[in-house]
Amino acid sequence: MGINTLPHAIRELAGLGLLERLDAIAIRTDELYYLNRHGQQVWREPRGLGAGHDVPQFSIHRGRLQSVIHCAVEERLGKDAIHTGCRLDAFAQPRVG
Length: 97
Known about the structure:
Radius of gyration: 18 Å
Largest sheet: 3 strands, antiparallel
Strand order of the largest sheet: 1-5-2
Helix content: 25-40%
Structural class: alpha+beta
Strand content: 15-25%
Shape: elongated
Mean pLDDT: 95
């Protein structure tokens, strides 16, 4: 299934240097519109760059998005940084201050 990633999410991924990779495999969502059953426009709104954001809005298959993030983690932290088939039983975060 695909997801629609809004500019505020893409801005964070761009900050991690992933914008070029995403742009290569995702679809830029330039506008969103709804039509009635007769094909007449009911509503239309620009999205991403067309709406004045500094980064695009993307429509992307969730597996492809996960793959981009997965590859980036492996490149930056090494293949041993990702553990699959594990179970987290508890987590405690110390209080600061």
